[in-house]
């Protein structure tokens, strides 16, 4: 797969040149039909729609309202995940979603068939990683089609050190939640529904 350039790209160049080059390397099953969105907020930001259908893919500038899943993030935090290592494991996962992880298998990262199941959900989950190098970092995942809410439906907050411990396997996610190291506000049911879809996809 194409390697992420060492120097930061503009959002439009990344989405309209780099992402299509990554998608060309992904073997897409013919029966997959899903739309993914990315919404970057701030200077140079915008919205793009990634359509995958009949074994083909395309990336077009435009509203994400038809997407089953939309990544919602500030331009600064988007660059931070891709080129500055910010956000820890959550940053790496967000970067890998659209092939931005230089050491990830883009076909596995996209899980295209699984993402179609997210269209049945509705809401915005925001993840905040605090106390990390470079300051706090966040990303949002808009589930289901429709407009992006002004405020998150569910917000998950975790310190960078604890996120790293979870990724290394030295901190159990349930233990982290029960001890307050993972703080969840808003609609917890949405988070559980998302977990259910992802677990079903992985089985």
Structure explained in plain terms:
This protein has 203 residues and is an alpha+beta fold. It is built from eight helices and eight strands; from the N terminus they run αββββααααβββααβα. The protein has one domain. It has an eight-stranded mixed sheet. β2 (46-53) and β3 form a beta hairpin.
Overall body shape: globular
**Backbone structural class:** alpha+beta
List the quaternary state of the chains.
single chain
How helical, in percent, are the residues?
Answer: 25-40%
Run of helices and strands: HEEEEHHHHEEEHHEH
How is the largest sheet built, in terms of strand order? Answer: 3-2-1-4-6-5-7-8
- If helices are DSSP runs of H or I spanning 4 or more residues, what is the number of helices? 8
Give the strand content: 25-35%
Low-confidence stretches: 100-110
Number of domains: 1
Q: Please, what is the average pLDDT?
A: 84
Annotate the secondary structure layout.
Blueprint: H1 11-23, E1 33-41, E2 46-53, E3 56-61, E4 69-74, H2 75-83, H3 88-97, H4 106-110, H5 112-115, E5 123-130, E6 137-143, E7 154-159, H6 160-168, H7 173-178, E8 182-186, H8 188-202
Parallel strand pairs: 1-4, 5-7
Antiparallel strand pairs: 1-2, 2-3, 4-6, 5-6, 7-8
Helix pairs in contact: 2-3
